[in-house]
What does this fold into?
Amino acid sequence: MDKKSPILDVQGLRKSFGGLEVLKGIDLAVHPQELVFIIGPSGSGKSTLLRCCNRLEEATSGSIWVDGVDVLSRSTDINRLRQRIGMVFQSFNLYPHMTALGNVTLALRKVLKLKRDEADRRGRAALDDVGLRDKVDAYPYQLSGGQQQRVAIARALALEPKIMLFDEPTSALDPELVGGVLNVMRAMRKSGMTMVVVSHEMRFAREAADRVIFMDQGEIVEEGRPAEIFGNAKHQRTRTFLQNVLAG
It folds into this structure.
């Protein structure tokens, strides 16, 4: 895939839960090595958009392509596709009876069918990448919330995805633990990882994002470079949201 082609291409995406339309025709293209930050009030559809991108939620209509693969096609091997799409949630979803290394290598062994030595090598490298080289044998209860989230990031990175989706990755963390996770995300951005981030970390959005998207009521209201959105938003809905968030 060349640099000009989107690695994630969403067109006309709609999602309804019963009679409630949560996504109302979303168009979004994310290019290789781009960091796109999605902001907006609770209930605006941000998380649903991410979950539709790897079919954790089934779209009602529209199209989603990731790295040239039709996500919504019935013929698409969804487990194979999810190897290309790393996802990090608010909750860490670690297995409490497994070490950090065990959590990271589980999919490598079960999904990719790697031998234990190779899985361990990749798992240790991923934990090293998130600054947890000395925690490979630690169990989740022995780790802080921030460290657990970094294990979750390492678990996704070990599969060598083409794009990473982050759904409020720091919202469950105590404030003093947020910095470690954001530093890992900064390093990923520097290494060229394509990332779509839903978060209320506005300072991080300002300094790290290539593009900021403001969603409200299931629609993309506006998008632009951080300086444009934070400094000179065109829409009153965007300005009101930012005033409320930044004032808090």
Notes: The mean pLDDT is 94. The CA atoms of residues 67 and 183 lie 26 Å apart.
